[in-house]
Design goal:
This protein is 73% helix and 0% strand. By secondary structure, it is mainly α. It starts with 19 loop residues before the first helix and ends with a helix.
């Protein structure tokens, strides 16, 4: 708490991917990186006996469990679909429905 935050440059993400599964694989890798960052902050809060920060971070930890599971499931499903256009269309329609949630 009461620390100084310095935000560095944000690396530009890739603009092109070879296949839909590559997009979700990249998203999964990013979610895992976010999870590691949150876990590191939580570990420091535990070390510092900063209980308020631990409570604050709990929501983010729970959210990351959901985000990693969602991205991982899509990687698995897209891997199974492969180049099957019908399967890809079904997944696309399913994802379109999730966008409204």
């Amino acid at each position: 708490r009461d620390g100084k935050v310095e935000v560095g440059a944000v690396e530009q993400p890739p603009a092109e991917f070879g296949a839909p599964v590559e997009i979700f694989a990249e998203a999964l890798a990013h979610e895992r990186k976010v999870t590691a960052s949150i876990n590191a902050i939580y570990a420091q809060a535990m070390k510092d006996d900063d209980y308020a920060t631990q409570v604050f971070l709990q929501w983010f930890i729970n959210e990351q469990v959901e985000e990693e599971a969602s991205a991982s499931e899509m990687v698995e499903r897209l891997t199974m679909a492969g180049d099957n256009r019908a399967a890809l269309l079904m997944l696309d329609a399913e994802m379109k429905g999730r966008a409204a949630e």
